[in-house]
Amino acid sequence: MSAFLGNPVYMKYLAIALFVIMYVLLVMLPKRRAIVALTTATLMVIFQILPISKVPGAIDWNVLMMLFGTMVIVDYFIESKMPNMIAEALLRLAPNVIWVTILMSLFSGIISAFIDNVATVLMVAPVGLAICKKLGKNPIGMIIAIAVSSNLQGAATLVGDTTSIMLAAAAKMNFNDFFWMHGRPGMFFAVELGALLTVPIMMFLFRKDKAPVSSDEHTKVTDYVPTITMVGHVVLLIIASFIPNTPEMINGYICMACGVLTIVWELIKQKSVKGMLHSLNAMDYDTMALLAGLFVVIAAINEVGVIKDVAGFIAKAGGNNMFLLFTIVVWGSVIISAFIDNIPYTATMLPILASVANSMNIEPYFLFFGLLVGATLGGNLTPIGASANIAGVGMLRKEGYEVRFRDFMKIGIPFTLAAVIAGYVFVWVFWHPAV
Predict the structure, then answer these.
(1) What is the maximal distance between C-alpha atoms in the chain?
(2) Residue 280 CB: number of other CB atoms within 10 A?
(3) Pairing mode, if any, of strands 184-185 and 180-181?
(4) What is the pLDDT of residue 291?
(5) 181-240: per-residue pLDDT in tens?
(6) CA angle at residue 166 from 61 to 370, to 5 degrees?
(7) Could you count the other beta carbons within 10 Å of the beta carbon of residue 223?
(8) How far apart are the first and last CA of the chain?
(9) How far, in Å, are 111, 191, 367, 425 from residue 155 at the CA level?
């Protein structure tokens, strides 16, 4: 056994086997993803693929702090009823059901650019369901549009999606870099271009929904402080992006500080720990545990040289043809992310593409952005390709509406093609190494 564990070739094969098994189980057991990742990480350490001394350094604490702090703020933001009030204002602007769907979809996307995609769906979709009930309309189309739009715009900013946070950590990017970096327009504009192209698609898909609408409801916001901290933490992230030589974990510190301030305010206001306990119980600990496990697993396969080998294969597949390599990264990611959760896929590919870029002597941003376009937007092809889609379909199921694959893909495919093509062309034009 000791001879086996000491053999680099055997160790590499064992790491690959554990990684493949983990991926299969992540697909087969979506409700046990965190357990699967943490178990695999533990086995990597037990079999000495990754020394235990390297485990703390393998975990990106900045990413975990950003997620935790933002989740706290989002929970209180939802409880304050502010999203409902904003949605009702949008309803009063819509002349008919077509524009209700379009405005709700765009509203979902705007919110999702700054907070978690699933949280966005949980905020906006109930309003869409209420509208459809009032009009006696099947809500499947509207909720799917809300979900895919949420998933689309999550890639627009650093804090909009877990994949964006992971990419920013790998590329040492700050909040402002998603808008403008190295004298070039960033991912925000690539995503917004795709979002604009979805408007005529929705106008065509929902062209028969011309019934007029109106809204007499006026939701009262119960607390404006969560809105202030929500906006405040985004503003602070922007300010921090302009300050040179900030600590590596500055974004995590900002999100955690704003989250703690929100909790403290609620404790003072309610004079009870009930609200705090509700917020802490509502945290998505599974996602954070999943990421922690994945960080360790990725570090382990990197330790035995697997990532270097895969990077060499990708570079060889692309050869000296930069366009072919970029195309493989984008559209390969679209296909994979249609069926596999984009978090573990992105966590796997980031170090691989960094290695490929290094071997080709180019900056990694070009390939990183291509990965984000394909992996994040590709999840809209199917109802299982993104957590936001799963949340939307789940809400419809609770209301008695079963969503078939073809029902979802009728909207998901044109959304995905429009958004990915826009991002694909945008990144190639502005971020090709020759530019």
Answers:
(1) 75
(2) 15
(3) antiparallel
(4) 80
(5) 888 999 999 988 988 888 898 888 888 777 777 666 677 888 888 889 888 887 887 787
(6) 165
(7) 19
(8) 53
(9) 12, 7, 15, 16
